[in-house]
Amino acid sequence: xxxxxxxxxxxxxxxxxSSAGVSAQDIVGQITEPILLVDSDWRxxxxxxxxxxxxxxxxxxxxxxxxxxxxxxxxxxxxxxxxHAMTVQAPWRFEHPFRDGAAETWFEVASFPSAAxxxxxxxxxxxxxxxxxxxxxxxxxxxxxxHWVGADGRILWVSETELNLLGYSxxxxxxxxxxxxxxDAEDRSAIIGRLARGHGYQVALRCKDGSSRSVLLTANxxxxxxxxxxxxxxxxxxxxxxxxxxxxxLQGTILSWNRGAERIFGYxxxxxxxxxxxxxxxxxxxxxxxxxxxxISRGERVEHYVTQxxxxxxxxxxxxxxxxxxxxxxxxxxxxSKVARDVTEAERHQELLREMxxxxxxxNADLQQFAFSAAHDLQEPLRMVSLFTxxxxxxxRSQFGAEADAFMTQTVEAAQRMNRLLQDMLTYTExxxxxxxxxxxxxxxxxxxxxxxxxxAAISESGATIECExxxxxxxxxxxxxxxxxxxxxxxxxxxxxxxxLITIGARRRGPDWVFSVKDNGIGIDPQYVDQIFGLFKRLHxxxxxxxxxxxxxxxxxxxxxxxxxxxxxxxxxxxxxxxxTLPIRES
Length: 588
What we know:
The protein is α+β, with helices and mostly antiparallel strands. α18 runs antiparallel to α19 (552-562). β10 and β11 form a beta hairpin. The protein contains 19 helices and 19 strands.
């Protein structure tokens, strides 16, 4: 493997490797060659489709590091080349073999620094490597002493014949600077200068045993040529992007303008280059530009900033801006690269969605207020119906016959059922309209005891046994938690078999939540109905079989979901039910 030399870079290019690199995630998703973006911690933050196949990630890239994605292909030397690419903060190239069983594919990795970390562009060079290996075999067979030197004087490759001639191992020789092996005291910089200009040079090299050998050095300009080719390739990507990609200096003067910018804003490059970027701003947003340029000059990056810009024909667009610093070869910030994406249509949809959500919020608030008022106001007439019917029963019992007595009894019972329904409706609407007070803590152990006290008559009549392990504290209103356990325990008692109810209550930790469970040995539920029973007024039995309003489980669901959890049931007919719900673990 021979890395090409560090390119000095051409800072005058309209789109330098730095500016193109930081925008690669937005513009190279469909490039057929693999392209990766890693952050400064080596986490893979972007990969196009070809790169996901290279990483064998089945079309997805998670937050693992590059080393974790490629554990079988990265040896220590190759890892050092990647790390060097991150360190130099300038375009860099090296080669990376990928092995899949007996098959081997070689890629040339072109790395370009970015504000996010490092852009890596992989180009298949398997065929070129095959030809190079054939040439190397020919040179070795011919017994020719030969080495390749980069433009900076670093030894990139050496033949076995030359190693034998000088007496060094490959590790001692390759990667070192040729100047370290000069036998004469001639100025090293003069030799490197000649090599950089592509001139051959006759020198005496020092052998390991102290002797010297006269050799002809020839510079390898391959690294510089490839770096220039990479600049051209990235510039072509930028030029063909659908997004507007604009280069400007720190004063805001436009220096470069791609076809995407021409399409979005309507100006040609000749109309805008040399003018201030404020020409695109709407009057009320002109002040944004100095603020953005100030952040860029401090080395910050502006990401996905949504604002408005004006086109040549006067239209106002919504655009999403990503602006990144552009640095020269010394690392000094000299300008900014801006990617502007037209999000006008998306912003219109968002505005419509916000309006619809606001209308829905107002409608829900009105509906909740109506339900609360109706449920509250209806209680008084019902109370009067029940009261006067009971007075009729006491004063005129048996005077109008058995049928009249039955009618009065049914009227009282109906009024009482309606009153219970209204009470549950009030509870449900209150839960829908209120929020959990910040910092309020509830003790489930106390809530279970309160629920048992409220259900004392039903527990005694049914012979129910309730077993409860120690339960953890949760962030919830105590009365809501009491209501939750009372409804679940009450259901377990109500829907019982001939055997006395056995109810077990517990909790276990699962990730960021506590999972509470209320298990019974009752009649159970057919699995096809387990998702329906939490709906409003959903009943699986008649009120005559099992009295109730059909709101109990809906109230439970509203309490749990309002607290950020969820509730579900697992059950089989005649084998009991287990109601489970999650509540977030309380921060201490």
